[in-house]
Amino acid sequence: MRSIFFGFFFFVIWALGARYYYVCQIKGLCGGDAVTVIDARPNSLQLKYGEEVILEGYDEFEYSHGRRLPNLNTNNDEFLDKLAAHLIAHPEHSVTITGNYLEREAQAKLSGTFQENLGLARAEQIRNHLLSRGIDESRISLDHQVVKGTKLSRPLEFSLFPSGVDEENPEEYSKVQFTFHDMTYSDANFAFDSDVFQPGAAFILYADSVVTYLSNDKDKSLTIIGHTDNVGNNQYNDDLGLRRAQSARKYFKALGVEKKINVASRGKREPIAPNNTDENKQKNRRVNLKIE
After folding, report:
1. What does the pLDDT look like over 18-27, one tens digit per residue?
2. CATH code at 59?
3. DSSP secondary structure of 16-57
């Protein structure tokens, strides 16, 4: 009788553990209150190309607080299907996915990603869904934005832009991919107006992977490009961007990269956002790492 009791007791413990794993780890529903209410999502999600609305009336995506994995419903899947179908039918278009997150989510612990903030990590997950639908990675740009307040009504935003370079009507702001072979990190790794490199956790994880990748593929090379905001003249910013790229190169050399690492600077010439807020200026102060 005693053995039956203990057997039943351990079965209950196992069942509770299994339920926790399914609900929290697989479904991702244990990260605190959801940012939006899952049964009352506004159907205000749009896809636009300039002022032209391509898709509209879809449910906004939904996330649990501090989580990068979306709580998808069938309407979200339908939106991604339609977006992928549009990109396949229109090779002249590419898409930017902007991941938004609340200020109080800024310290959320990230794992399983090279992205340095929750907005980019959320956008990256949606990019993965588009890749699984046959969209080439080079046609997907990522962006991020911090939102003030206590409610995130639009966790994701989607906008189309011309593929390639239009010499007669170039894009005002450069597009950033945030992929393993074309990764970007903001000046959160530098103090303001400084070239002293202080890598964050995301960069450290990425750099370790790059070192392993380069050691296993002798034909690949690394180029680091420094960028700045628009404070100061071209000469000053060209020099600052170069010094920051050189600091990042020293970090890789200290990790044991023996092959030549090229460095360059674009200064303030290729902004990815308007230099009108501290957040946008930080986006523009960045280092771009290209593996080719």
Report:
1. 444 444 444 4
2. 3.30.1330.60
3. HHHHHIIIIIIS---SSSBSS-GGG--S-EEEEETTEEEEEE
